[in-house]
Amino acid sequence: MSHLLLDTFRRIKRADAGYPRPFKFLFWGTLANRVGTSMLWPFLTIYMRERLDVPLTTITVLLALHSAAAVVGVSVAGPTVDRFGRKGAMILSLLVAAIVLSVMIVADTITTWGVLLVIQGACTPLYRVGAHAMVADLIEEERRAGAYALLRMVANLGIAVGPAAGGFVTTVSYSLAFVVAAGANFLFALLILFLVSETMPQRRAASTSFALFEAYHRILRNRPFLAFCGLNVLAGIAYSLVMILLPVYAKDNFGIQESQYGFIMSTNAAMVVMFQYHVTRIAGRYHHLPVLAVGSLFYALGVGSVAWGGSFFAFLVSMVILTIGEMLSMPTSTALTANLAPPAMRGRYLSFYALTWEIAYGIGPVVGGVLNDNVAPAAIWYGGLVIGLVAALGFVLLFILLKRRRTYDQSATV
User: Fold this and answer.
1) How far apart are CA 211 and CA 121, in angstroms?
2) 106: Cα separation from own chain's centroid
3) Rounded CA gap, 199 and 86, in Å?
4) Which residues does 50 contact at the CB level (< 8 Å), separation at least 6?
5) Which of 162, 326, 348, 360 suits 211 as a labelling partner, its CA being 20 to 30 A distant?
6) What would the DSSP string read from start to end of 95-114?
7) At what angle do helices 246-254 and 44-52 cross, to 10 degrees?
8) What pLDDT digit, counting tens, does each position of 372-408 carry?
9) What is the pLDDT of residues 115-149, one digit of tens each?
């Protein structure tokens, strides 16, 4: 595994050669940041449950507060990024994250955790929307999917290292993991401040359309895009169940400790690092929506297969299946959104797309927690299987509908 990761690291380094310098700073800064932050986040649910000593449903409600705040944050992030620029929004988001993570070390009440998660949820979208918009500013349309894939690859190279190390660090001291995660966000903010220039085009033109309703009313009239976003919520719910609840499920029901589960998360990241760019190049030969349908099908199978396993190896296989869907879906959906957006509205389109993930992460874990506490632990994964299949079918139907509409429109003009 280490030999493959090293070889992939060399290939990634060669692959970024054709991109502009600001993208390279963003690229390598993402690597360092993800190594630090991913030491903690896969185990945050376990830490919260053990520190607060409350049922899983309570923890998922706290996480839902994070997502609810992120919904508000995403709504503001797009217009903010389009008016004030990408750079400042990204720096603010990273600095707030560093402060919140530092305070989490001493937080020991539900109320405190709720406040911290709300603050973090509201500010996190600023970085994500700003970074995606910056890439769209820097990279021409035909190369965007590849650029987003490269960012995902290097981020997951960091995640391949982080959780494996974090599994051992958290066993010794969760406080140290929080310090490292906070430091990684702070250092990345400094990197962007001093080494990355603002990329936002047409500052004056963008600033005239900051009113919230005016910023989004065109998107709300775009029914195919809204349908795509709705289906992405369903796919995201299935994906979030594994990413948020599997660590707790595996530990509570099968005794799999953080040090073991860290390798499952590292496998997810290593697969993205080694195969993402190639998968994206192959997927780029096909229409976006069928690719998203296949990706959602892999989500469904990955989530559902958790219910049929009970060992480290079985959960590892489930993660492998889920990761195939991730590699197909995530760069494809981001590139589709960026391509659909007018240059002056990239931040808003990308923030609306980001909203789908916040909604998914708000709904999915809560539904999973309720099923776990009131039906059976395995019910989490059967529910995710059904939701993932519905998403896959929806993408197919949307593709067929849009294809028929285009055919009709072309024939009507002849």
Assistant:
1) 22
2) 27
3) 7
4) none
5) 360
6) HHHHHHHHHHTT--SHHHHH
7) 60
8) 888 888 999 999 999 999 999 999 999 998 888 765 3
9) 999 998 888 878 888 888 888 888 887 777 677 77
